[in-house]
Design brief:
single chain, mainly alpha, 4 helices
């Protein structure tokens, strides 16, 4: 038997301070990469550099909140 990463297990890895403010696609990608990292056979697991490359775009995917209206009038 192999361990299964369910959506609930992946959500359990997310920092609760994010309060659900993360893209669902990002959560799916995190789960997919995590699943690769726990492969039974070591040769099927990605190197850490591949993991970093796969997850790095997730740190950039948060949209910047719009500027306050008062700042736009200046």
């Amino acid at each position: 038997a192999t361990p299964r990463l369910t959506e609930d297990k992946v959500k359990g890895c997310i920092d609760p301070r994010l309060e659900g403010e993360y893209p669902p696609k990002g959560l799916a990608k995190l789960g997919a990469v995590a699943a690769l990292c726990v492969q039974y056979e070591a040769e099927f697991r990605p190197s850490m550099s591949i993991v970093v490359k796969a997850l790095s775009p997730l740190t950039l995917s948060r949209q910047t909140p719009p500027a306050p209206a008062a700042a736009l009038d200046s």
